[in-house]
Amino acid sequence: MQWIWESFKHIYALLAVLPAIPFLLVYFGYAAVTGDRKKAFRLAMDVTTALLIGCVAVLFNRIFDSSFGLYGILLILLLGGGLLGNAQYRLKGKLDMSRIMRAIWRLGFFLMSFCYVILMFIGIGKSLFAA
């Protein structure tokens, strides 16, 4: 049973290293099957966000020598959900949790993509100039 968990971790790590590859695989695969490129793009964003969260957390931990990366990301997502939920409640008078979660997850894709690029450049620069 242990080998299943280890295999899952290795596959996740492999896909998370270059999140553009799973994004393109999901996008082109789903678009080829259904023909709906808009839905394929959204699905690719959703899948890639899970990979980006893990990758950005590890990059943050390695660059800043901390263990707060994943917790910081989750905190930011929760705060964003609270702020978005408050705004929705003030505007409409009710909460649609599925809509809030979908919006935060997709905004997280853009935030994590930005952080991934920035932290990758910092990490590469740090490893080049540390030698």
TrEMBL record:
The keyword Protein biosynthesis does not apply. The chain crosses the membrane at residues 12-31, 43-64, 70-91, 103-124. It comes from the Bacteria. Pfam families: DUF3397. The keyword Cell division does not apply. Keywords: Membrane, Transmembrane, Transmembrane helix. This is DUF3397 domain-containing protein. It comes from Paenibacillus lycopersici. The lineage of its organism: Bacteria, Bacillati, Bacillota, Bacilli, Bacillales.
